[in-house]
Amino acid sequence: MKTTIKIVALLAMAIGIMAVITGLRVIGGFFDPGYTYYLSLVSYNVIMGAVSVIAGIFIWQRNKNALLYSKIITILHILVLISLLTIFKDDISMHSIGAMTFRSVAWIIFTISIWKGNKVVQNN
Question: In the chain, how many domains are there?
């Protein structure tokens, strides 16, 4: 399970770094994604990307709050995905929906893995 947690931590950090880099390139005008986007969504992605990197570090360190941070990130991503699919469904690009779906599913998997990893630690 230690290896699984380390992989989860690395993936969480990688997803976060990609979101920060891509988002900052869009915000800075250095990259045009080729579709209409909401600056607020890009800003959310940058902020949550940074939070994901921090969470990845906590996951790697087996910090006692790693599961809490993972749950919060998961819930926020799911709430944003639901809003994209309902409130903004006519305006948002399929790329944005796909990216948020990916993040939501990834963080659900991360959260379950951390939870199971914590159960193993507590049982030993």
Answer: 1
In whole angstroms, what is the distance from residue 39 CA to residue 26 CA? 9
Q: Is the dihedral of CA 28, 52, 15, 79 positive or negative?
A: negative
What are the CA-CA distances from residue 13 to residues 18, 66, 106 (Å)? 9, 13, 12
**pTM (2 decimals)?**
0.89
* pLDDT tens-digit series, residues 5-58: 999 999 999 999 999 999 999 999 999 888 888 999 999 999 999 999 999 999
Query: Are the CB atoms for 10 and 59 separated by under 8 Å?
Result: no
Q: Which domain holds residue 63?
A: 2-123
Q: Phi and psi (nearest 5°) for 33? A: -70, -15
